[in-house]
Request: fold
Amino acid sequence: MYMKLPSIGAIVALTVVTCVSKASALSGVYEVQPGDSLWEIATRFSTTVGQIKKLNRLRSARIYPGQKLQVGSRIKEFLTPNGPYYWSQPQRERQPSRDYFEPSKTSASADYGRASQLLAAYQADLGTRFKNLKGRKTPLKGWRIVLDPGHGGRDPGAIVSNKDGRGKSVLVVEDEYVYDMTVRVMERLTLYGAEVELTVISPNHVKRDNVPAGETFVNEKNEVYNDGQYNRRKDPMVRPGSHNIGRRVTVANRFYGSHSSRKTLFVSLHADNSPGRPKGPLVIYQKKGGRSDQASQRFAKVMQKALDHPSVPSQIGGRNMAVLRAIKQRQRFWWRSGTCRSRETRGRSGFTGSVRKMRSAS
Reply:
């Protein structure tokens, strides 16, 4: 039996984990979809129409659905215990200390170019993989969902000491961990037919595997906002931080466009470390003063129920948060886990199950 989504748009924030599956290599090949144009494909992969025509020896801009186009060279891949990485990899194999970080060696504009191409290649591979999947159902077709991976860029968020499966101390970096979760959520939502956009993107990784769990993700300050024009500014402060959090809203509202708010969703994901507070998932909906965003609150209750676990109860609350209140007339929420956790816990969340139960309200 399906669980219906609220019939009006809502905004919520939450922190969740999805199923674990192997990361895969990416190709530079794209399969043309109905409605595509060469200009749209070139924009998606941060290249030009002329370059695509040259690579594929096209005499005109005419293309057809099902046609496979070379959109760039195969992306250089580094296979590591906590990868894969593309184009470049961290200098360290794991996070060595709370203060350690690796700055980007290139500009925000260059990082955006790589990040947008990498994400487009990953999404194209997902589309090809899911297209011919037998028995595939798409209950989220028609939905536009923005996933907002918390922190990133200049701000790593919480850096927390934890234990791996063998009792060894490890350090977990919130923004790196949350980005990995976000990509996994994106993959599952795509499988069910939703259009998905990320507010923050990475230039050298998508979904990663840290096997063994002690090989934690390293704090790299190379993430950028998913906004090409913004990243062209020659200013190091364009990278994500608390000073420009409003850019997340800009990215989201641009993606929604004139799409019906009845089928839009904004989810901000975090993995906080809050000493003194109960461990476990917390779903936050927009609330200012005594007034709650009703659509967000309804959806937050759906998520709280899906995330609840006897050993780690989920929580819910209303707060007035900048990134939530600026998203107008959509379902919006903030989701966080009570603490950063190691890889073993990544498959325990109820979020995947809740997506399976969701369908668009028509």
In short: The chain has two domains: 3-22+79-359, 28-73.
